[in-house]
Amino acid sequence: MNSPKKDGDDDVPVKDPVKYGELVILGYNGSLPTGDRGRRKSRFALYRRAKANGVKPSAVHILNTPQDTKAVHSRGQHSISFTLSRNQTVVVEYCHDNSTDMFQIGRSTESPIDFVVTDTSGGGKEGEDPSIAPSTISRFACRVVCERNPPYTARIYAAGFDSSKNIFLGEKATKWKNPDGHMDGLTTNGVLVMHPEGFPEDPKQGLWREISVCGDVYALRETRSGPTRGKLAEGESSALRDGSLVDLCGATLLWRTGEGLMRAPTLRHLEALRQELNASRPQCPVGLSTLAFPSLPRSHRWEPNLEERQPWVYLTCGHVHGRHDWGQRPEGVEMPGEGEVSTTRRECPLCRTVGPYVALWLGCEPAVYVDAGAPTHAFVPCGHVCSERTARYWAETPLPHGTHAFRPVCPFCSSALSTPGWTRLIFQGPID
């Protein structure tokens, strides 16, 4: 999970590096469907670099001709260009900051991007380069700047520097001059952030805000790409907290601090919970076959030979069974893979309740858990299993959807949740 070494840099983490935290893309349940490779993965660890690469604002230039703009950019420094009109551009130059490390996130696979993020919905065709596939995620979406010294505060900024070390806000982009004189702006689809309170011990959802290019915090626009910025959120900060959510309009990232990760459950712990559950030998109350959750990690797709003992559940009542074929056949996906929602509605043989009938899958992305509790609840309608507190938290956390809507989703597969969004599982023990 370390940042990959690029040609000509020396930013590979040293022995026993300081870990600032991790960014985890919601919806992938531990790894990308095609596997994590290089900078394209479901989670990205931010370590203190061997050499600081942060930048900070320095000189400001007001330019009236294209030649002036080219002259400033030719200096090779990082800069942000605000085009006010055809005849006027404000360029803010940035100089080196040896007290911070900068990490860039976006859809582009160009070298300035440390963490390549593609749409959770899949944006584009299988195998297509994410930098050119249709997507609402910006090629240079945002940047995270971490202080190299304690408390290692990480701050989020909209937009990232491109291969020319420039951030360019065109004439139609939302931008303005602040009362103190410095220029600022927003990206087309915006970078939204939600900071929860008390995560993970007693988490309470915060308000969704928009982050500017210079890191100020604003209320949301009327629509995602509206031309008018929201009201400045006085006293609020772009500093990420443990559990902060960053939405890039196509993918939502969860930030876990280094300290928070030390308290979070690990994949080994989740595996132990799986083994403990299987050791109790839950049975199908009708077929009397012993059920077992498959080992982690596993395929994202249905594998009949490996999943013969897979638990299934009637989501309305929560009764857990083995897979059976009586009742109505699915109208859509006959054998849903992980994260796919079946349209099957059947009558539970135990209580006669009619409702969706789906396979159960253990949630195996530890970062989204708010505790290390037993896997007792499942999200509705996808069937991903986790602890009760984790299920309740995410079912009560609306994520951005579309241009101005919000809805809770399963953090393991991004399926939209129904109300209340989860069900308590009722297992049948072995009959002695």
Automatic annotation (TrEMBL):
GO molecular function annotation: ubiquitin protein ligase activity
Record family assignment: Belongs to the pellino family.
Segments forming domain Pellino RING: 277-432
GO biological process terms, semicolon-separated: protein polyubiquitination; regulation of Toll signaling pathway
Organism: Gymnodraco acuticeps (Antarctic dragonfish)
Protein name per the record: E3 ubiquitin-protein ligase pellino homolog 2 isoform X1
Transmembrane segment boundaries: none
Keywords of the record: Phosphoprotein
